[in-house]
Here is the input.
Amino acid sequence: MKCADDFRLRFGKQELVPIVIGGMGVDISTADLALEAARLGGVGHISDAMLPTVTDRRYDTDFVKEKLQQYKSNLDNSNKSAVKFDLGQVAEATRLHVEHTMRNKRGAGMIFINCMEKLTMNAPRETLAVRLRGALDAGIDGITLAAGLHLGSFALMEDHPRFRDAKLGIIVSSLRALQLFLRKNARTSRLPDFVVVEGPLAGGHLGFGMDWAQYDLRTIVNEIRDYLLAEKLDIPLIPAGGIFTGSDAVSFLEQGAAAVQVATRFTVARECGLPKDVMQEYFKAGEGDIVVNTISPTGYPMRMLKNTPAIGSGIRPGCESYGYLLDASGNCSYIDAYNREIAACPDAKNISVMDKTCLCTHMRNFKCWTCGHTTYRLKDTTRRLADGSYQVLNAEHIFHDYQFSTDNKIALPD
Here is the structure.
């Protein structure tokens, strides 16, 4: 019986273990987690979600404080169009995080950064260009374009000296999305080096509507694979979403996938950025505790634990400090929802906003507990301790279980 280690992810002459750890923000896929994946011969992702905020925590910068000081006079103004990011600071935050990660890289694997188009930052094109180019400047091995169609993203990088050197890929959830991406970026004469096909069981934001349960990852992967074969396009496919065991991975690898992307089991790795008490919430969750809702201001459905503190929270919008989801006009649907509730309950000491959430503030504070569909199975991957808590695993144990396990078995820790 085959295991995932019997296969290899190939980029030209380079061969890697076909296991990719997805890029979970904000700072959930930490540098330490990505570095472990690379050391073990696979691919690890860091995330570029809210990097100025992350570098304040990790590298003692003051980007959030300086932004708040600049715009604090706007705190009570519902119009956030004037609240802009300093592009130099965005570039510096990207440089700090990527350079730190790459400087500490060991092993034969690779480090990619997950770059989200929906992080619009009140200047979508300008801030995206700075983040993409900053990651290339800092030596990242590859970029995974996420959370959007990225129809113009290659154009933002095409004059960069590393545009044809770094590995560049795209996350899609349908053949149509991939076709649009290929068509719009054709003039750069550069195909993506890989395509991550993310199915409906993935964590966080989904590339589906609220009818997500009607879709199936394997069906989408096969449809895209057949299209690429018909068009004679040799682009590695990497399925993602709901791949919980090494045997799950093998089932895709045997059908022609180049690798698999996994994340849920690594949310409870020691190297993950989630606080330890939040990890225990993930371990304790049952299948009925996992919901898909539309509270994200991005417009995408999002999967999370139903007891996540972000649901129903009515905190004041934190755009002057954060504001990562402000669109090109300075709008965010949470601001509209918050102002609606304030108008409806002007004398209330505390309000509740059920239909949207201040995603920036809650993600920054680890109060939005996004998760994959298979999170309820995490308790079966470890041991329960005498105090009732669950043993937190290290990333190497989880990686090796994916790499070497067979027969749908999961290796429990010692």
